[in-house]
Design goal:
The chain has 196 residues and is mainly beta. The protein has a single domain (54-192), classed as Metallo-beta-lactamase, Chain A. 11% of the residues lie in helices and 29% in strands. The protein contains three helices and twelve strands. The chain has an eight-stranded mixed sheet, covered by helices on one side. Strands 1-3 form a two-stranded parallel sheet. It starts with 15 loop residues before the first strand and ends with a strand.
Length: 196
């Protein structure tokens, strides 16, 4: 599980077990350990984390476009699972520079925030991140949906981010299963419908 959220987000909090729980930063809507049932290995902080069975590379990134001066820092969580290189960019607040992209390394599946200020990068910067990392599969996250449409949560929808992508699939589920064999041959953006 990555960044278990709390009930302030607008979705029902699913209670699930997880062998590993990755926490990108300590904000309550990203670190709700009550959502994780049973024992779990918690992976938090930057650098090489996890263990030999599940190594994680946590890359320190800014939560805003001022180097973290306003909202602090987050950890992009990069790991491989069953031959798929995954990177979850948390609440990334600025486009990636060359050194950050190099530290992240090759990515097959990228989870990237797209909703914009004041919390994350917007759709335009998110597209530049996708272009720089060149993953085969992309899942946008942290954008306005009917469940999160509140005055105190002023973020954009996913549409600005989707402009210019040639292959976009709208998945009628909150679940998407990708394996090394089923990764798309050409870059594809998957827009999930969360059913929680």
């Amino acid at each position: 599980m990555i960044d278990p959220y709390d009930d302030t987000v607008g979705y029902r909090v699913p209670l699930r077990s997880a062998g590993y729980t990755l926490i990108t930063h300590a904000h309550a809507d990203h670190a709700n350990m009550r959502a994780v049932t049973g024992p779990t290995h918690v992976v938090a902080g930057s650098g090489r984390r996890g263990n030999d069975a599940f190594p994680v590379r946590a890359v320190l990134l800014p939560h805003d476009d001022r180097g973290g001066a306003e909202r602090g820092l987050v950890n992009g969580m990069c790991f491989s699972m069953d031959g798929v290189r995954v990177c979850h960019l948390s609440d990334l607040g600025d486009a990636l520079d060359e050194s950050q992209a190099a530290e992240i390394g090759p990515v097959d599946l990228l989870l990237v925030p797209v909703g914009g200020a004041p919390y994350t990068i917007d759709g335009v910067k998110a597209r530049s991140v996708v272009e720089r990392l060149a993953p085969r599969a992309v899942i946008p996250m942290h954008y306005m949906t009917p469940q999160t449409n509140r005055r105190d949560f002023p973020i954009a929808g996913v549409e600005l981010f989707l402009e210019g992508f040639k292959s976009v699939e709208r998945v009628r589920s909150g679940v998407l299963e990708l394996t090394e064999k089923t990764l798309p041959l050409r870059q594809t953006v998957y827009v999930l419908t969360n059913t929680c």
